[in-house]
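Protocol step 4 of 5: obtain the predicted structure for the target chain.
Materials: sequence only (see below). No template structures provided, no constraints applied. The aim of this step is simply to have a reference model before the mutagenesis design in step 5. Sequence pasted as it appears in the construct record:
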Amino acid sequence: MKPDFFNRSALSRQLWEFRREFLWVGIFSMIANVLMLTPTIYMLQVYGRVMKSGSELTLLMVTGFLLLFYAVMAFAEWLRSRLLVRAGVRLDEALNSLVFNASFEAYLNSARHNVAEAFSDLTNIRQFLTANGMIAFFDIPWTPVYIAVIFLLSHFLGWLSILFALIQLCMTWLSNRLSQNEIQIAVDAGNDSYRYVQSKLRNIEPLHAMGMTANLRKRWFSVHDASLEKAESSLERQHRQQSFTKFVRYSMQSLTLGAGALMVIDGKMSAGSMIAANVLMSKALQPLDLVVATWKPFVQARTAFVRLEKLLDVFPERSPGARHQDPFGEIRLEGLSATAEGRVSPILDNITAMFPAGKVTVLLGPSGSGKSTLARCIVGVWPGKKGAVLIDGEPVESWDRMELGPHIGYLPQDIELFDGTIAENIARFAEVDSQKVIEAAKRTGIHDMIVRFPRGYNTPIGEAGGILSGGQRQRLGLARALYGNPALLVLDEPNANLDDAGERSLLDAVNELRKAGKTVILITHRPSVLGAADLLAVMQKGKIIHCGPRDEVLAILRSGNARPASPA
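Step 4 output (structure tokens):
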């Protein structure tokens, strides 16, 4: 039965899966630490037997065993290091998908979530598992064994070893109390400085064009200087603690040697036992000293564990969802409301409406009326919503996203093209179907532009980013939305950056979609696309105030009758 500790979170359960590896690391640590007694035994044999007998053969045999035991010890240490490295890699492989999905969900729910921080936390945990600090934790239990051997050599030196070990433990505890908060504050300050720069780089062009860089650099200097000050204070404290710890450890080793020499003078122990006890004291205190030296990585790994544990608990791995038949594209909204963090009034306010399958619905309304939020709710990417969005009578959340995704074409206001070729972007980074890619590009009128590039559809977006105009990028995003003839298309301001030729291509594509029986929800400010509409919906202050056949709604708008729309 698993301990309760390992049942408390997804991350803990993943670590529990590596209990066998940690058990073997413990076994190899036992072998290595037992064989650490080899130099002590060798000294006792040389001083106690070889020097008295003067036998070269005995010396040769003892030395041979010494080298054999050293080889086994080195092999055991290599095996435990290899096991820890493999465990760290396997832990990363087991968690990277969970962390990716959880970070994706967290960012979808709050754009302030730092996606890179989650992967940095995973890296910190993996690196700590493979570093000296983890090995020190496996070696610490053997400190009492070394002290017990010292007791066999001398009870006085044994009690002295216990005293020195307690001093070292107290110093470790005190180091933790004094440095833990300061280390975390320094780490958080560094992350704040990094996040500040990253957030400004997303809008580097207007910053540079309007001469804002110098002003923002001054603000960054204040943030960065604060992080440097905290980091400097933390490092100074750590260095002071490490220097003092080193002073105490060296002093204790020398005092052990001095106490042993006093006992040799009094004839209470041999010179070999004196040197062996000093070596054992060094081995007994070494793991404790290593813990002090690696305390900062331990604190960072523990903080990363807690943060990653919370992320995976708040955003656990989703079940794939139910599988349905291919959707026809009927959209029904039932009491749909949506809000955002820090906003008092709702963005969408109790909307009930129906957009029939196979129809083109044009959504109009002033800026801030909630059109883009409604589009995000329909495709299932808006977190703060209440009510229901039904696709073919099924809640959008109930669909398997990998199953539903190919049947949805979504063009947001802010077009984002990803690192890869033009063909890969249009094909949504699935296996590229050249025929479908070219068909989608032709329907948006961008095919001729693409083939003029030296590498055509294989042109990397990184190279083409500076060449494509805003309208070309929008048409490329539209081609991605049209790829594979999805049943439902939600197009948010698809003609915002289009010229006359681009808008004609858009209208032709919308008319083709209507003939093919596709459901299109098109958000626009331009009246030029109204001719393609079957239905017209008008939004105002988060509500749909008119919804119906295009000509009827236009007549209402012309007459100035502002009656609210009845639920469809």
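Step 4 remarks: The mean pLDDT is 80. Strands lie at 331-338, 348-355, 360-364, 385-391, 394-395, 408-411, 488-492, 519-523, 535-540, 543-549.
Proceed to step 5.
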